[in-house]
Design brief:
Blueprint: H1 4-15, H2 18-24, H3 53-70, H4 86-99
Helix pairs in contact: 3-4
């Protein structure tokens, strides 16, 4: 089942003026734009009940890299998507922390 809301979420936040509202509250932020999943292949022996494992692996790789890079400038906040996206965002932040000796 396609979950268009997950894909449209970041644009909806922009349309709603979230960045401006946070700026008005004194928070500095920079919108790094929408991301796309990296191409990924998965083991064909994975259980059939897993939903979109290649897409999840691709998003995980993309978000891990984005999180590591964004952590060099501050705390990244990822908006949109479903809970599986935390696989990449949390791993990327953890990799950055490990590289910094934390």
């Amino acid at each position: 089942k396609d979950r268009r809301g997950c894909l449209m979420g970041p644009d909806a936040y922009r349309t709603a003026g979230l960045a401006e509202a946070l700026g008005d509250l004194g928070h500095g932020l920079r919108d790094l734009g929408n991301l796309c999943p990296a191409p990924a292949t998965v083991d064909p022996a994975l259980p059939a009940h897993l939903h979109a494992p290649a897409e999840t692996a691709g998003w995980t790789a993309t978000l891990m890299q984005a999180a590591e890079e964004a952590m060099q400038e501050g705390l990244p906040i990822f908006l949109g998507g479903d809970h599986s996206l935390s696989l990449g965002s949390v791993a990327g932040v953890a990799n950055h922390a490990a590289a910094m000796g934390r």
